[in-house]
Design goal:
Aspartate Aminotransferase, domain 2; binds ligand 7TS; globular; four-stranded antiparallel β-sheet; Aspartate Aminotransferase, domain 1; seven-stranded mixed β-sheet; about 425 residues; 14 helices; alpha/beta
């Protein structure tokens, strides 16, 4: 096991992206007369046929409300929904399925921790640590919590080469630190933060602090084991891992979730309701108020089965190959500046960059004319861009179906844009 928590004893089997592409109906599309090169996977991933079919099959044959009915369909739908929870539990090696809560997305999962666990456990004068590389979804819930309860929010800095500054972390692990919230993989810098090493530092120096990991960019791309990470909470989204939109996951240690008050209140999460009082259901129902995203959970289960069959180690190895090649090619282009570490070591398949004298939106528009989908902007990480003295950036992000040829097309597209802009 390496310090970043990515480890496998036998080398993963190589995956064949050309063969996998056939699983994704959308990838045969042409955009503006060119084959689609979908390089916006950090925003959302495309869906394999098995996930699309799982949704169709469920809605055609197995759909019903869950947990309430005694009728056959309701029992079948409940079993399908709960088996999706089992699939998630196994996928992240959670020790207890009761700690796996379905949410709408990673954003809602993080808000749940802040609003439920946070309000009950963080008080005036306590310290909350986040990093300078957080997505707004793992920053704003903590800033609001700090403001509401009178806690202090402090930022763990990043080094000049775009990695988390572990000395800076250690310097901040003083006083009443109650929470350290950080991303596993940055959606801009692409770095994989060494969560097990960070967790060890936190446990040693701030024993009362709980660790919240934003896994939105890691769970879809590399083997993630919550027990190896040694985190207290982990949040991620289904739509970035070949699953449907509208379904996300919060994993939390059951003993922490059990002591937290509910996030949303209403149907499905109660024990008993009287005119003046109520008791709450046990985990995980306690945090799943209202009719949940039943079909979406089933679709996520299908996505997990698909990713599991290919193997997360193989997916990670493939993305490493793509990112190493992309970094090498982009480094060779005059006027192109890669954001974050320029070496592929511990870098996920996310590459943000700027091109001198071309606004990222113009670049994204020009590339789109050639069927290449990238993203331009601040990628919901404005404090990070500001800290690096950057305006908006362009970003290419890879997944299992991307190829080296698509990286070549990206590079050629950038060169053409440069020629166009003189
Ligand atoms: N955390 C990280 C690190 C992310 O990259 C994102 C989404 C989120 C949280 C929120 O996920 P959601 O599913 O709740 O929206 N990131 C991006 C992105 O980079 N471009 O579009 C969405």
């Amino acid at each position: 096991m390496r310090a970043n928590g990515i480890g496998y004893s036998t080398p993963p089997a190589r995956l064949d992206p050309a063969a996998l592409r056939a699983d994704f109906p959308i990838l045969v599309r042409e955009i503006n007369g060119h084959p689609l090169a979908y390089l916006d996977n950090a925003a959302s991933a495309q869906k394999p046929r098995c996930v699309i079919e799982a949704l169709t099959r469920f809605y055609s044959h197995g759909y019903s409300s869950i947990h309430r009915g005694v009728h056959t369909l309701s029992e079948e739908a409940t079993a399908a929904y709960e088996s999706a929870r089992d699939a998630v539990t196994a996928f992240i090696n959670a020790p207890d399925r009761r700690g796996v809560i379905f949410t709408r997305n990673a954003t809602e999962a993080l808000n749940l921790v802040a609003a439920a666990w946070g309000r009950a456990n963080v008080g005036p004068g306590d310290r909350i640590l986040v990093t300078e590389m957080e997505h707004h979804s793992n920053l704003l819930p903590w800033r609001r919590l700090a403001q509401e309860v009178g806690a202090e929010l402090d930022y763990i800095p990043i080094t000049d080469d775009g990695r988390l500054d572990l000395d800076g972390l250690v310097r901040r692990l003083t006083g009443p630190v109650k929470l350290v919230a950080l991303t596993h993989v940055s959606n801009v810098l692409g770095v994989v933060n060494p969560i097990p090493e960070i967790a060890a530092l936190v446990r040693e120096r701030a024993a009362a602090a709980r660790i919240v990991v934003d896994g939105a960019q890691s769970v879809p791309h590399l083997p993630v084991d919550v027990q190896a990470l040694d985190c207290d909470f982990l949040a991620f989204s289904g739509h970035k891992m070949c699953g449907p939109t509208g379904i996300g996951v919060l994993y939390g240690l059951p003993e922490l979730l059990k002591e937290a008050p509910p996030f949303l209140v209403g149907g499905g999460m109660i024990g008993r309701v009287e005119r003046a009082e109520a008791t709450w259901a046990d985990l995980p129902a306690r945090f799943e108020a209202g009719t949940p995203a039943i079909a979406e959970a089933v679709g996520l289960g299908a996505a997990i089965a698909y990713l599991g069959e290919i193997g997360m180690a193989a997916i990670w190895a493939h993305e490493q190959e793509l990112v190493a090649y992309a970094l090498e090619q982009l480094r060779g282009l005059p006027g192109v500046r890669v954001i974050g570490p320029t070496e592929p070591r511990d870098r996920a398949g996310v590459v943000a960059f700027t091109v001198a004298a071309i606004h990222p939106h113009d670049l994204a528009f020009i590339l789109d004319q050639e069927g290449i989908a990238i993203r331009a902007g601040f990628h919901c990480a404005q404090p990070l861009h500001e800290g690096l003295g950057l305006g908006p950036t362009a970003r290419a992000s890879f997944y299992l179906y991307n190829t080296l040829t698509e990286v070549d097309r990206l590079v050629a597209g950038i060169e053409r844009a440069q020629a166009l802009f003189g």
